[in-house]
Please model this.
Amino acid sequence: MGKAVLIFVLGSVILFTIINVNMNTRIGAASQDAIDRFSETSARNIANSVAEMLLYKIADSTSYRTASLQSMDNIFSDAGSATYRVIDTTIGAQDLIKIEVKSTYNEIPSSATVYASTTSDGFIPATVKAAISTNNPVSTLGTLVVDGRDHDLNGNLLGGGTGTLGIWSTQTIDQSGNSEIGGTVAGVDEAPEKPAEAGTTGANQAYPGGYPPTPDSLLGGTPKGFPEGTLKSIAQSGMGGSQYTTNPNTLNHPFKGVTYVELPSGTPWISSNIDGTGILIIHNSSTNAIIKNENLGTFKGLIIADDIIHIHTTIIGAIIGLSPTPSEGNTIGNGSGDVLFSRKAITDAIGSVLSASNYGFAKHRMRVVSWYE
Amino acid sequence: MGQLLELIGASVIGGMIMLIGLSLNFQINESSREIFQNTYTQRSAITAGQILEYDFYKAGYRTTGAKLIQADSSIIKFKADLDDNGAADTVMYYLSSTDSMVTTTNPNDRKLLRKINSQSAGPVSVVTRFLLSYKDSIGNNLSYASLTSPAIRAKVRSIRVYVKTELPDAINNTHNPDVQLYNPLDWQKTIRPKNLF
Model:
């Protein structure tokens, strides 16, 4: 019997040991889950923190790049480390800086890839009320298409209810010929049609405080970084491919930055090639600079013109008209042209201009284009 | 006589040891089961959290136009280039009905589903609650009614995710057998996708 008890006790001890080991394994697994979760979060925080540090480093020294992998140890604790590199890259037509960070914490890896630009964020000026915003009566003829729905830089429809009106005017709007007008009304996209869907145009509107009289004031003036004369001086400086002229025949294509055409009073720019991007300004102190028959090139960005007549090409972005008394009545288009509203085209155009005044100590800040983590 | 006493004594001691052993075994089994159940709900929550974080942190990455397509209390649909291949994907999270978990006795558990582009939806985890709330850049809560507007959805800068996981079947409730206990576990996090701007 004594032997039987001993065998039983020994069996119980073995059974207890097996159960105990099994239980300890489960407790260990639960603890390991918590540790791994903490390490994952820490590794991600390290990757993001290093990327942020590099953004500041580039902001202070815009030429900083390192194609070879650099390492950084003892981040957060001796369990954290990271490697990184900073290189130039191009996505689409956009020149960007790519920051790649790979981090580990307790041997748990994470990574972050940041695409950044040295150009500033742009914005949509308050004066952009529609794809075409004017201070004069507007008439659309021919097969002109004015679409206030949001488009990408290539003119592809984005939709999503983030567009604007087709045409906005302080005076009358007349839709004639086979022209079509569309836009976004209260978050609902309406395709271009004739007649246009109700609400896609806004006629006889009042501009609070009076319609801005100059290109700089149209972009918001001093509060928005455009004191009077800023656009002209940027154009004259040649920054980022900007151009200033009184004779449009001297312009180089494609347009970039600010293209400022200050025409003599009463002298129109006829049969124009507007191929390019940025901000195109046709203006003089009498507010009677005329651009007529835009026949060639696709323009992506913002056009500010005293008097714009007969659009026969594609404009992706927006148009703002200044003159309340256009030279040829009100015909903004009488042939086959497209005006496609694009938030991206406008913000890119204004952002590239704002960057010009963003240099100097503590001024130049990076613009994060996208962040992959 | 002496042998008889020895036999009785050995039987009593052996019986006591046997009872102690059985009791110990029972207790260990109970503890082991509880630990296993805790680990189950913990792992369910962690898995859901990891997948949600992986996708949500990428919301809006390399996309154009509206980034948040649908935003409701337990449904979200957004665009993101998940695999970083230059092509935007459409990601959707939503809950299945409770009928999808007919083999469990928990009346509230259901699948949290993840749908990428036009692929068929796959389960992320089994949850009993999945609640989303949305805030703008200064931390104001945006009401679900207002989020039907694209303009309001464009203001979303952070998403608070709440996930509740429970056991598929009730555990023994020794204190009150009438009440079903499913060992609930909550996971919540406010995620600020860096590409929602």
Notes: The two ends of chain B are 94 Å apart (CA to CA). Residues 3-191 of chain B form one domain. Chain B touches chain A at residues 6-7, 10-11, 13-14, 17-18, 21, 24-25, 28-29, 31-32, 35-36, 38-39, 42-43, 46, 49-50, 57-58, 61-62, 64-66, 69, 81, 84, 86, 149-151, 154, 194-195 (CB under 8 Å).
